[in-house]
Write a structure and sequence with these properties.
single chain, 40% helix, binds magnesium ion, binds adenosine-5'-diphosphate, seven-stranded parallel β-sheet
């Protein structure tokens, strides 16, 4: 199975090179795992006269009546005519012209396959797959023939989707069940009614019936998801079992003093539960790696703070990393307030700290004078050295790259405990696949007394009413946000919109009765911070801003959130933005303002936003609408690139695979038992193919 692909008869060094470069097929094994994307019924031949505008892939049988090259240079193309007795089909090539021209013979009969279309009312096929009728008749035909994804380059070198099928068929004839041994334990096969690996691989390529094909896909999807769950589960298990961590053995004076004397509110049940989970981790002697999922406003910050107090009680420093300067600053202010009566020092380090500030902070951090260091990703720079870092907390983690998080680990000889907090919930399937190696806490309870935010959708022409509504809220002493999109692709226009919007708002709310803050990414940090602080203090009643305030900002007195051009935002972003209101004891409103004409997806998003405040539900819906390919932060990681499985459609299989893998890890973590030998060998063979160590 690990033989280089060039040793397969019919491949050779030249084609092997193309297979490697174009589709990453290096070995026999790789070829077998290059699955067809569809099957065609080889018994089905379509007459040319039956081709119409709805026709997709078809197979046509006929004689070549003419071949000629047309056009010059870039317009050069090869055009052949195929006649089947019912009509003429035009065959066109733009690439590999010389090679194909040599191999086409006028007067010979061919079976051609491809996507049919029309050009000037003539049925046409571009870059069809060609096979001499005499050749096509030679091979015993399956009822369902595989069609493989093939690039233009492959096609022009005689490695089109059909030829790949021939190669795969040839390879399969050479192989027996011993070459493709079973890797799943027998009881899993019987429990989930899965066919064996050998049969599945044969049948995903060359099924006799549709049912055979489906059984093969089911088996291989399960395998794919199960192996990935097992791998991450084993990582988690190994870390929890063998990786040493700092031991925070006690809850001491700082924590107790804060808990009894300074806690500003009663903790929710979820907050207490998560704190317990964290305490258990950090007291275990193993390194903690925990993902904390909580909806916007569920109160993750205080949980983080109290975890840092436990670290401090045990003589350790902590750091608290935020994705934006504004948020880092706000955390800094917030933590200082919480710690006002406690004997600890909190510092902040961001990109805009002055050289002098930086020097002092770095010194104090190194000497251990600073107990909690907050900041942006400036924290992960090499210059930042701690005396004794015991706990690293990453807030709103989806803004950070995986690699950035990993850098925090190296800040102490013994890796610090890691707590990663999400800005909004991640769908469970995504958490299982992309973050499956982290332990996982959920805060699914909101602090008591919150009144649900009322969300409405208004067209842009209702702006005067919206402004009047804001006015009435301000009269009650509240504050309002007005958010404009600023998207990279349309940055210039968006910026103009923002400025126009600001002028308009100013006209509605003139000084000195009203004051407005404006914050956007083009401002200097100092200016941003000043404007932000004026709003936080209540000196300004309205905050006009781009999404720089999206994450985490906390102004409980704000009760209105207007989102302009809301159709341009994704669901998680809308939910995150909306989370800026509804933080106080007053009823809050979110107004989604859009143009009149909207895409179906945009309508769906707005509808969901108006229907629910539940971030967990919104996350699931988002994954459903967008599909897994597009989720922020996971795109580069390649973690969701399953060959067959789709974590949205196959979530049931994923859940089953998860449970099954957990059971195996609990019973036989070293995979030593006889039944698990297939798994063990499989994992060993696959080692090094994916950079699993990079995850988390
Ligand atoms: P998020 O989880 O979105 O980061 P925050 O930690 O910013 O949420 O908390 C949101 C608001 O709720 C803050 O004003 C915080 O002080 C308040 N809060 C947190 N926990 C509680 C609680 N148990 N009871 C009442 N208010 C709380
Ligand atoms: Mg937060």
């Amino acid at each position: 199975m690990s033989n280089p692909i060039e040793y397969l008869k019919g491949v050779g060094p030249l084609r092997a090179d193309i297979l490697k470069k174009e589709v990453g097929i290096y070995t026999f094994n790789d070829l077998l795992l290059y699955f067809p994307f569809r099957h065609i019924d080889r018994t089905q031949i379509t007459p040319v006269s039956k081709i119409n505008s709805d026709t997709e892939y078809v197979q046509v049988k006929g004689k070549i009546t003419s071949v000629e090259t047309l056009g010059e240079r870039r317009g050069r193309r090869l055009v052949a005519t195929l006649y089947d007795g019912t009509g003429e089909l035009e065959l066109v090539w733009f690439q590999g012209i010389n090679w194909i021209q040599k191999s086409l013979h006028v007067g010979s009969a061919y079976v051609v396959f491809g996507k049919a279309g029309f050009f000037m009312n003539t049925p046409q096929m571009t870059h069809p797959e060609m096979e001499l009728l005499s050749e096509a008749n030679k091979e015993a035909k399956n009822f369902l023939e595989p069609v493989y994804p093939a690039t233009e380059k492959l096609k022009t070198k005689g490695l089109g989707g059909r030829q790949l099928g021939h190669l795969t068929a040839r390879l399969l004839q050479l192989l027996s069940e011993n070459d493709i041994p079973e890797n799943l334990p027998p009881d899993l096969l019987s429990k989930f009614h899965l066919i064996k690996r050998f049969g599945a691989i044969k049948n995903i390529h060359f099924p006799a019936t549709k049912a055979d094909y489906e059984a093969a896909v089911k088996r291989l999807k399960f395998e794919e998801l199960f192996i990935s769950q097992l791998r991450m589960g084993l990582l988690r298990f190994k870390r929890n079992t063998y990786s040493k961590g700092h031991i925070f053995s006690k809850v001491g004076d700082l924590f107790n003093d804060f808990y009894t004397n300074h806690l500003p509110f009663e903790l929710t049940g979820a907050q207490k539960r998560v704190l317990k989970e964290i305490r258990k981790d950090v007291g275990s002697g193993k390194q903690m790696n925990r993902l904390l999922q909580g909806d916007v406003g569920s109160g993750k910050t205080i949980v983080a703070f109290m975890a840092m107090l436990i670290a401090a009680d045990n003589g350790y420093q902590s750091c608290f990393m935020a994705p934006t300067e504004i948020l880092a600053r706000q955390h800094y202010e917030g933590l200082k307030k919480l710690a006002a009566d406690l004997p600890i020092k909190i510092g902040i380090l961001t990109g805009s700290s002055t050289t002098k500030e930086k020097r002092e902070i770095l010194q104090a951090t190194l000497e251990g004078e600073i107990t909690i260091l907050t900041g942006t990703h400036a924290l992960i720079e090499d210059a930042v050295q701690f005396k004794n870092l015991g706990l690293a907390i990453v807030d709103e983690q989806h803004r950070f790259g995986v690699a950035q998080r990993a850098k925090l680990w190296d800040k102490n000889e013994l890796n610090p405990h890691i707590l990663v907090m999400t800005a909004t919930p991640i769908p469970r399937t995504l958490a299982l696949t992309a973050y499956g190696d982290l332990d996982y806490s959920v805060m699914d309870e909101m602090p008591a007394g919150r009144i649900p935010i009322q969300t409405v959708h208004r067209m842009a022409y209702a702006r005067p009413q919206v402004m009047n509504f804001i006015k009435s809220e301000i009269e009650k002493g509240r504050q309002a946000y007005i958010i404009y999109p600023l998207i990279e692709e349309s940055a210039k226009l968006d910026f103009e919109d923002l400025m126009r919007g600001y002028e308009e708002v100013k006209a509605y709310f003139p000084e000195p009765n009203y004051y407005i803050s404006m914050v956007h990414g083009k401002q200097k940090s100092v200016q941003k911070n000043t404007n932000m602080e004026r709003f936080v203090k209540g000196d300004t009643q309205i905050m006009v801003s781009t999404t720089v305030i999206e994450v985490g900002v906390n102004v409980p007195n704000a009760s209105v959130m207007v989102i302009e051009s809301a159709e341009k935002f994704g669901l998680p972003q809308l939910h995150q933005l909306r989370g800026r209101v509804g933080r106080g004891s007053e009823k809050s409103y979110c107004i989604l303002s859009t143009k009149v004409k909207l895409s179906a997806d945009a309508k769906e998003r707005l509808k969901i936003m108006c229907e629910t405040n539940d971030g967990f539900k919104i996350a699931e819906k988002d994954l459903e609408i967008r599909g897994p390919g597009d989720i922020e932060g996971t795109r580069q990681s390649g973690l969701l690139n399953f060959k067959l499985a789709n974590i949205v459609e196959d979530r049931k299989i994923l859940e089953a695979a998860r449970l099954a893998s957990e059971k195996i890890i609990a019973e036989d973590p070293t995979l030593s038992s006889h039944e698990n030998q297939g798994l063990k060998t499989h994992l060993e063979n696959e080692k090094g193919k994916t950079a699993w160590s990079k995850i988390s």
